[in-house]
Write a structure and sequence with these properties.
The complex is a heterodimer of chains A (119) and B (111). By secondary structure, chain A is mainly beta. In chain A, 0% of the residues lie in helices and 52% in strands. In chain A, the strands form two sheets. In chain A, strands 2, 4, 5, 6, 9, 10 and 11 form a seven-stranded mixed sheet that branches. In chain A, strands 1-3-8-7 form a four-stranded antiparallel sheet, with no helix packed on it. Chain A is globular, with a radius of gyration of 13 Å. Chain B has no helices and nine strands. In chain B, strands 1, 3, 4, 7, 8 and 9 form a six-stranded mixed sheet that branches. At the A-B interface, β5 and β10 of A face β8 of B.
């Protein structure tokens, strides 16, 4: 059973950079899945941020593309999210997840981590 | 890519059936049989309930069923139980080099 665990600061200052890491256990990040980031502002719906394959190929949400970088560290079996120039609108629960492209579903999710942007 | 359209709320009494809708376009829901549904209880991560329009992952009760007609997908919950009260999000594949799209979510209340 694959498990994902987000880690990183819960508070980021405006104009700063949000950095999160997702540790993967119970499976290899080099397997045939894409590794995703999804966020959910308080009381609102889900929003794709982006995804990465172990080869380093990425897909990003066009609305965030200029500020987002997702990277993978195969040696540590983890992947990371960097979101720059954050504002209060980036306050959200951030989930890491595994996407299976054979049927285009997210079949495993992390528990999520709340990131608040505030001075 | 615009979000899929879901009604903000729905409700039903225990034992009844309720159907949640998810409307997209021919570029997403109508164009592919890759619609999925996620259940989210407060404070919890989403859980996959339906994939490829109508398939259920192992462990999901058969009270949950999915279908699609044209640009609209539907999730039907039969024999409503108190534990079914949650937010439900649909999602669809929207073509290559595209992350896909989520719906805005429907809050299901069991009366």
């Amino acid at each position: 059973q694959v498990q994902l665990q987000e880690s990183g600061p819960g508070l980021v200052k405006p104009s700063g950079t949000l950095s999160l890491t997702c540790g993967v256990s119970g499976g290899s990040i080099s397997s045939s899945f894409w590794w995703s980031w999804v966020r959910q502002p308080p009381g609102k719906g889900l929003e794709w941020i982006g995804e990465i394959y172990h080869s380093g190929n990425t897909n990003y949400n066009p609305s965030l593309k200029s500020r987002v970088t997702i990277s993978v560290d195969k040696s540590k079996n983890q992947f990371s999210l960097n979101l720059t120039s954050v504002t209060a609108a980036d306050t959200a629960m951030y989930y890491c997840a595994r996407k299976d492209y054979s049927d285009y579903v997210v079949d495993f999710w992390g528990q999520g981590t709340l990131v608040t942007v505030s001075s | 890519q615009s979000a899929l359209t879901q009604p903000p709320s729905a409700s039903g009494s225990p034992g009844q059936s309720v159907t949640l809708s998810c409307t997209g376009t021919s570029s997403d829901v109508g164009g592919y049989d890759y619609v999925s549904w996620y259940q989210q209880h407060p404070g919890k991560a989403p859980k996959l309930m339906i994939y490829e329009v109508h398939k259920r992952p192992s462990g999901v009760p058969d009270r949950f069923s999915g279908s699609k007609s044209g640009n609209t997908a539907s999730l039907t919950v039969s024999g409503l139980q108190a534990e079914d009260e949650a937010d439900y999000y649909c999602s669809s594949y929207a073509g290559s080099n595209n992350l896909g799209v989520f719906g805005g979510g429907t809050k299901l209340t069991v009366l």
